[in-house]
Amino acid sequence: MKKCALMLAALMLVGLCSCDESKKLASKLEGSWTGAPERLTDNAFGATTTIDTYTFTPDAAIKNGGQVLISTMLSVNGGIDQSQGVMQPFSLSAAASASVNGTWQAVDDDEVNLNIDVTTLSVEIDPKAVVLTMNMLNTDASAATDSIKPQVMEHIKNRITQDLQNKYFALKRIDDVKIKGDVLEFEISSHDYYLTRQGAL
């Protein structure tokens, strides 16, 4: 009986230590963190580069956790050919922003669970930053690109939305979380990320 009591006490102590470590990580994680440019996609349709900012806000309803907002700045470079529903092939560059909400919870001293609500994903294309280049003979290229710009913007938005949905569907946890001063390090699917704190805590 005495042996069982000692084992139970040891288990309770381990649980209390784990809880304290999770609480400590949660307090350090609070705030906004911005990462380095990262390639979201690079394929026949072009390349999309992103810069993510994670904002972790505490919520008393979630033990050692709270709400998370992921804000993303995107740049798109590539082209669209006739197979994609346009009369003439052209190259393009564009800028966009996106955001998605979710919740987070520190569950260990270096592990945070994420629950991203993909239905909150919002993508906005900056119309002033959409540049189309078309090589045409005997035609006003400027007029031609202006006429298809709304269609191109919708195409870009749909493409970005699908790519980000795929990314966030797979984002369930960040591992090996370390905070060293104003630098946040973590791992997602064996890929290392380094983010810098934005503003004062």
Quick synopsis:
It contains two helices and ten strands; from the N terminus they run H-E-E-E-E-E-E-E-H-E-E-E. It has 201 residues and is of the alpha+beta class.
Give the total of beta strands. Answer: 10
Instruction: Note the main sheet.
Output: 8 strands, antiparallel, barrel
Class computed from helices, strands and strand pairing: alpha+beta
Our count of domains comes out at: 1
Report the helical percentage. 25-40%
Mean pLDDT: 85
Distance between the termini: 49 Å
Q: Number of helix segments?
A: 2
Task: Work out the radius of gyration.
Answer: 23 Å
Strand content: over 45%
Overall form: elongated
User: Reading side by side through the largest sheet, how are the strands ordered?
Assistant: 1-3-4-5-6-8-9-10
| Multimeric status of the protein | single chain
Spell out the helices and strands N to C.
Answer: HEEEEEEEHEEE
Instruction: Extract low-pLDDT stretches.
Output: 4-18
Detailed description of the structure:
Helices cover 28% and strands 48% of the residues. The protein is of the alpha+beta class and 201 residues long. It has one domain. The chain has an 8-stranded antiparallel barrel with strand order 1-3-4-5-6-8-9-10. A hairpin with a 2-residue loop joins strand 9 and strand 10. The protein starts with a helix and ends with a strand. About 7% of the residues have low confidence.
List the helices and strands and how they pair.
Layout: H1 2-29, E1 31-35, E2 38-43, E3 46-58, E4 65-80, E5 90-106, E6 112-125, E7 131-133, H2 141-169, E8 173-180, E9 183-188, E10 191-198
Antiparallel strand pairs: 1-3, 1-10, 2-3, 3-4, 4-5, 5-6, 5-7, 6-8, 8-9, 9-10
